Amino acid sequence: xxxxxxxxxxxxxxxxxxxxxxxxxxxxxxxxxxxxxxxxxxxxxxxxxxxxxxxxxxxxxxxxxxxxxxxxxxxxxxxxxxxxxxxxxxxxxxxxxxxxxxxxxxxxxxxxxxxxxxxxxxxxxxxxxxxxxxxxxxxxxxxxxxxxxxxxxxxxxxxxxxxxxxxxxxxxxxxxxxxxxxxxxxxxxxxxxxxxxxxxxxxxxxxxxxxxxxxxxxxxxxxxxxxxxxxxxxxxxxxxxxxxxxxxxxxxxxxxxxxxxxxxxxxxxxxxxxxxxxxxxxxxxxxxxxxxxxxxxxxxxxxxxxxxxxxxxxxxxxxxxxxxxxxxxxxxxxxxxxxxxxxxxxxxxxxxxxxxxxxxxxxxxxxxxxxxxxxxxxxxxxxxxxxx
Length: 388
Known about the structure:
Blueprint: H1 7-23, H2 28-34, H3 39-47, H4 66-79, H5 81-101, H6 104-116, E1 120-124, E2 140-144, E3 147-158, E4 165-176, E5 182-190, E6 196-198, E7 212-223, E8 227-228, H7 234-270, E9 272-273, E10 276-277, H8 282-310, H9 315-344, H10 354-362, H11 372-382
Parallel strand pairs: 1-4
Antiparallel strand pairs: 2-3, 3-7, 4-5, 5-8, 6-7, 9-10
Domain Acyl-CoA dehydrogenase/oxidase C-terminal: 232-383
Family: Belongs to the acyl-CoA dehydrogenase family.
InterPro entries: Acyl-CoA_DH_CS, Acyl-CoA_Oxase/DH_mid-dom, Acyl-CoA_Oxase/DH_mid-dom_sf, AcylCo_DH-like_C, AcylCo_DH/oxidase_C, AcylCoA_DH/ox_N, AcylCoA_DH/ox_N_sf, AcylCoA_DH/oxidase_NM_dom_sf
């Protein structure tokens, strides 16, 4: 079964690629060095319609599909992974939960600015004491009259501290189920809420132009109607959100691999050793051939998963395809950056060449939105194995 992009998707790819190469590519290294979040470019991405690709027209979106979002993330990520994850998190983790589970009033209040790129939203799931074990949420929210009072902490939260961040949706314990398990709900916390503190940004290995902060909540009060979806179903809502997000992360990884192909082929043709281009040597040529294989395989797996999601396939099938795409694409991206750095030799270790930046950026792809180990667990369970 083939998963060819439509003519409309191909045209859209050209539009995004032209934008990325003109507005992001020339400045990405500088933003990386300065750890600068380019808010003006983010707004320009909004004007291009990138944040509204999957949102209905009534909120200013395009009413498009997940495949379109993957195309955009791949092309942005091909020139800069930091802006790629900014887009991925803004839509997949910021907009999607509100769009999927919000009330009519919540959607009308939050989505127009988020869809237009005038604002960003964060997604607060991970905590200092719980990474892959996301169900071990310790943040608590107690209903006091007509307000939720939130106490706890979140970490590694993307788009949570920019000057245009409008809110963060967080999971919190809101009680206990009849079976004695924690009742976990999702609550929208507006930026600037007293008791909600965005801590200083992390000093990260990569994604230097992406905004990432730890968050703390100390008696933060929000109105009761900021509950997102049904009380007690927040954890399930976030897990469903992550299924789609993993497909989008796979697209970001595809962009990373494509960037390594783009960098390695001309370098191997131009760089000479022993009087000939290094690309004429099998040791180098075969490595670059492997990059192309990884790029094509990762792209096919990613767009297969997106097509299943767009065509309404059963959730179990989407979950499995998302995990496969995320696992293969992200691990291949890490390998691809290592190979491309090796092809570039000593120059690959120098920041003047983009492969060094992509090498630093790639590792987190295997960790964020579900580690490689979690993806293998999901895949094995999807195959019917009783793995724990």
